[in-house]
Amino acid sequence: MSGVHVAVLASHNGSNLRALHRTSLSPDSPFTISLVISNNSGSGALAFARDAGIPALHLSGSTHPEPELLDAAIRSALTAHETDLVVTAGYMKKLGPRTRAEYTSRIVNVHPALLPRHGGKGMYGNAVHEAVLASGDTVSGPTVHLVTEDYDAGPVLAQARVPVVPGDTAESLAERVLVAEHDLLPAVVRRLAASMSHTPTPHRRPW
Ligand code: GAR
């Protein structure tokens, strides 16, 4: 497997995983998806990964009831697959401290609003879009940022702007933002992977 190894963590549908996978298949892609982890054994993300022949693991509070052991299992799966970069794409759980420490500045998350607006604990899925609509904001859009200890608080790498239109529901806004995520996230991962692959190993951390 060539290029920068990207592990994707996803909880549900996995449309961002599919967008990343499409990008990874282009002949000049600087990255490959080397592992998919989901906390949800029935997720679309795991089903897609298995169909696509990507190593896929279900690791959750049901496989590892102790949070410390779950954190250790995720960290060791990432290590075993020689992960360079971790992407949380619709992953509805917080990564544990050992995994965050091992991959400091190498964990990227996509959030479906323009951080620092509408982020933080409990802000995921439709709750985010409902908050955007309730605020009266006329623009929303995805943010790709580095993961730090606090929810949705790490440095922003990129954002895309999407209009909020009269009559929008959380579902219609979510759909429009998701389309923008499918461009933004692969573009950022591609850029990061390209800069990592030009940095000599083993310390390929350009940022
Ligand atoms: C995406 O909109 C992503 O931004 C959001 O969940 C959706 C997952 O879609 N993530 C969060 O709300 C986390 N704060 P997908 O499973 O189809 O990629």
Provide a descriptive summary of the structure in words.
- With 207 residues, this protein is an alpha/beta fold.
- The protein has a domain at 4-111 and 144-157 and 182-197: Rossmann fold, CATH 3.40.50.170.
- Helix content is 37%, strand content 19%.
- It has 6 helices and 9 strands; from the N terminus they run E-H-E-H-E-H-E-H-E-H-E-E-E-E-H.
- It has helices at residues 15-24, 44-52, 67-80, 97-102, 126-135, 170-197, and strands at 4-9, 31-38, 56-58, 85-89, 107-111, 139-140, 143-146, 156-159, 162-163.
- A 7-stranded mixed beta sheet has the order 3-2-1-4-5-7-8, with helices on both faces. The protein has a two-stranded antiparallel sheet with strand order 6-9.
- Helix 1 (15-24) runs parallel beside helix 6 (170-197) and helix 5 (126-135) crosses helix 6.
- The longest helix is centred in the last third of the chain and has 28 residues, at 170-197.
- It is globular.
- The structure holds glycinamide ribonucleotide.
- Residues 10, 12-16, 89-90, 110-112, 124-125, 128, 178, 181 line the site of glycinamide ribonucleotide.
- Its EC number is 2.1.2.2.
- This is Phosphoribosylglycinamide formyltransferase.
- InterPro entries: Formyl_transf_N (IPR002376), Formyl_transf_N_sf (IPR036477), GART (IPR004607), GART_AS (IPR001555).
- Catalyzes the transfer of a formyl group from 10-formyltetrahydrofolate to 5-phospho-ribosyl-glycinamide (GAR), producing 5-phospho-ribosyl-N-formylglycinamide (FGAR) and tetrahydrofolate.
- Pfam families: Formyl_trans_N (PF00551).
